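Notes continue from the previous slide.

Worked example: a multi-chain complex. Inputs as given:
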Amino acid sequence: MRDGGGSRPRAGAPIAALAGLVLLVLLGGWLAAAPFALGEQRPGAAWDAATCTDVATGGALAAVALAGLLAYLAAALSWLARYGRR
Amino acid sequence: MTNTATDAPGLDPAALSATAPAETDGALPTALWPAPYQAEPPLPLLAPYFGVVAAMLCMLIGGWLLLAPFAFDYRHAAAAVPQSTTVDLVSGVVVLALAALTAALFAGCIARRLRAGRQEAESVELPPFEAASGDATSAEPAAAAEQGTPEVPAMLESALGPDPDPILAPPLEESFSLEPHKPPLADPDPSPPEAEPRPAPQDPGGGLLDLLAPLVAALTADLNSRERERDHDYGNGASRGSAPSGGHRPDA
């Protein structure tokens, strides 16, 4: 991809990588909700080890992926605000 | 031309020119200095680094998902594999694969940006300031030669002559050596160094003698002419019986 004004090559945005992070966020959400969605965990009953593991791991996965996504956007916007006019 | 955060930074072709860009209609030029002397924006590598770190953490979480059913023993010695184990194993594999792919994509983005930055750095030509200075240093002697004006060092050298006793600086290897100073070894056969033949001293008053010689010759001729004139007048006065007017005969 080249800009219109010159022949300088432009590195494209890592859209696929960002999409991967978004999918990881969705996977984390699914993992946290899976015990309840699949009926393994009865409402009101004490959580077993599998439910605790799925909820904790899914929440952590979603949090990490979301944090990476927000950090990427923050860094990109910061660079754009500082050097984007040049 | 606007850059986005995902653009590889580099030199703007319009900013490479030292003059004001044509885009500034009536406004002050934003590039008062040539582009090579402006602070180049750094490569936007921080954002993909964050992505790589997040993807690597997700890979670890996926690996933990693969191990969790066996670590907590979801099965509890049951005959059939519980559904939670299947969900965790499948989710773990998907998360691990997706996180690995995401990390590879972010790493590829970093590699592309680094490569683009290196290519731009290699494609930057000589800055106009250095080019101008190089032209100036090479053009001044040529212009002086065309105008027929000798250079100042050449004039000084021709006027002063060669330095009879130049002061030579010691070589850098000896004066700035970091090693401790070692005294020179004793010469087993010390002999006085041979005295170099010194040039014959030039006559410092030769020029003055040459300058005064015609003056002395002229003065001598003048004195002789006056002597002859005086003798002539004295001879005439003696014949008339009176001393010559305006003078007296010298004793000698």
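Summary box: Chain B is about 55% helix and 0% strand. Residues 83-123 of chain B form the longest helix (41 residues).
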